[in-house]
Amino acid sequence: MIVNHGYRDGSGTYIITIDTERCNGCGYCIEACPYGVLEITTDPYQPLEEKIVAAITEKHRNKIKYSCAPCKPISGGGELPCVAACKFDAIAHS
After folding, report:
1. Is residue 85 helix, strand or coil?
2. Distances, alpha carbon 41 to alpha carbons 36, 47, 87, in Å
3. Distance CA 20, CA 4 (A)
4. Domain CATH code at residue 28
5. 28, 21, 7: which is closest to 93 by C-alpha?
6. Are strands 52-56 and 91-93 parallel, antiparallel or unpaired?
7. Could you tell me the pTM of the whole model?
8. Which domain holds residue 49?
């Protein structure tokens, strides 16, 4: 399942996408995130499968605009730490 979290405002659109089918719950993205935005949990969107995946924490879900702002690439340049750390291309941003 593709899960999108983000916002659209005067500065543009910013979306973090987690592909729970690709995520294996390794935790590299959590280690790489300097702001504690991600956590490893049972897939909240398919709880019956009991698959462990990366997800946006409840604390940051409604304020991702502020939580991820320091890492947001300016003019599309650079990779986010969580994206760069993911060896399975399960996390992306746009």
Report:
1. helix
2. 14, 10, 18
3. 11
4. 3.30.70
5. 7
6. unpaired
7. 0.84
8. 2-93
